[in-house]
Amino acid sequence: MEGRTLTLQMTDPQARFFQKDCKFPAFVGGFGAGKTETLANCAIRDALDGPNALIALYEPTYDLVRLILAPRMEEKLTDLGLRYKYNKQENIIYVSSPSCGDFVMRTLENPARIIGYEAYRSHVDEIDTLKKALATLAWRKIIARNRQKPRGIKNPYNRVSVYTTPEGFNFVYEKWAKSPKPGYEMIQAETESNPFLPDDYVETLREDYPPQLIEAYLKGQFVNLASGSVYADFDRKLNHTAETIAPRETLHVGLDFNVLNMTATVNVVRNGLPRTLAERVKVRDTPAMAKILKEDFVDAGHQVVIYPDASGGNTTSKNASESDLSILKQAGFKVEVNPANPAVKDRVNAYSAMILNAAGERRFLINTDACPVTTEALEQQVWAPDGKPDKTSGHDHPNDANGYFIVKRWPIVKRTATVTSLNA
């Protein structure tokens, strides 16, 4: 920042975000965590780098520009004693101070209109409220515009900052949480980090929102906001284990057959309970999977027991003359399979009971670091409109694979009562 000093009041998460110098920082916060305030502070800081800087500000819709963003920027500029003129037709705030640049405000709902200017820095509000495809397109347009090299700024550094409430496993989760590239860094802020809220604000939200949404809207966490998670009690922290596969330990492999997308979950049984400690995903076909399991585990001294999809008795591999189960048996694996798959609800109930039972016990644990795809599937698979687990997202493959193993070893026992007639 050149030529002027800012004095601003911030919460701890806001201050940590304000000090970030990465290329693409994200402030992910719950309701009332101060996202718009943080955006305004950071935008003005960037504008004070020099009078020739153009700062781009983005909202999902024009109404949000008019009702929230523009008034907040005007309030902030006034408080800082910076004279300005707001051109509502152009949606540009022109600042007359010789030390400050200007602000162009645009919307995300029509990315094709993000044209005709070059920005020095950009600040994007609530991008996660957009559908993922639209958010992706808007993001590409924004970073393409973010290339201005203003006169008078030594070593100009272009940056795009994001401020949003987490809306499930959406665009922001993919970019900043799941597998962030270099330069993508995130600060997560809870609602209660903001001491300037009304005293009853948090309690009111708790009364109006179900527990799952509270994780997102009060704590700024990424949770499943779809029609309902199949494995709603799974928690990547509470069901996590740091355990790893021991030498020559017997392995129990759940296997789901899908040409070009075979999935195997690799388990051990310790103290009579399952531990998922490895995975093999997106494998071409059954012969390829058999080869991988042999090289990775059998050749290392492990006995491997496979619990496959019972439909593998039919031909789905590339070799039309062999069934998948035959290929596995001929490769030397012990195969544990029933003549037919159990009912889907029985498999889901058995898996869910191991994740968390009515006694509060979490008997199923998974090494979330070694099994990222399986972990994500447990978090994100939802119920489809037909009342069955959704199969359109790809999250069904690891859940089905592990479900075949778990329901085989720990089925839900269906008990029947015997009634003795008093007249007997």
Account of the protein in words:
- With 424 residues, the chain is an alpha/beta fold.
- The protein folds into 2 domains: 12-217, 3-Layer(aba) Sandwich (Rossmann fold), CATH 3.40.50.300; 251-409, Nucleotidyltransferase, domain 5 (2-Layer Sandwich).
- It has 12 helices and 14 strands.
- It has helices at 12-18, 35-47, 62-79, 132-145, 171-178, 201-208, 211-217, 286-298, 324-330, 344-355, 372-380, 396-409, and strands at 24-29, 54-59, 84-87, 92-95, 102-107, 121-125, 159-164, 184-189, 251-256, 262-270, 273-283, 304-308, 334-335, 365-366.
- The strands form 2 sheets. The chain has an 8-stranded mixed β-sheet with strand order 3-4-5-2-6-7-1-8, with helices on both faces. A 6-stranded mixed β-sheet has the order 13-12-9-10-11-14.
- A hairpin with a 6-residue loop joins β4 and β5 (102-107).
- It is elongated and about 80 Å long.
Name the poorly predicted regions: 317-321, 414-424
Q: Write down the Rg.
A: 27 Å
Shape: elongated
Any guess at the CATH architecture of the largest domain?
A: 3-Layer(aba) Sandwich
Q: What is the overall pLDDT average?
A: 89
End-to-end separation in angstroms reads 93 Å
Number of strands: 14
Strand content: 15-25%
CATH class of the largest domain: Alpha Beta
Structural class, please? alpha/beta
The largest pleated sheet is described as:
8 strands, mixed
The number of domains:
2
Count of discrete alpha- or pi-helical segments spanning 4 or more residues: 12
Task: Tell me the CATH topology of the largest domain.
Answer: Rossmann fold
Helix content: 25-40%
Order of strands in the sheet with most strands: 3-4-5-2-6-7-1-8
Succession of helices and strands? HEHEHEEEEHEHEHHEEEHEHEHEHH
Specify the CATH homologous superfamily of the largest domain.
Answer: P-loop containing nucleotide triphosphate hydrolases
Pfam family, one: Terminase_6N
Keywords: Viral release from host cell
Protein name: Terminase large subunit gp17-like C-terminal domain-containing protein
InterPro entries: P-loop_NTPase, Terminase_6C
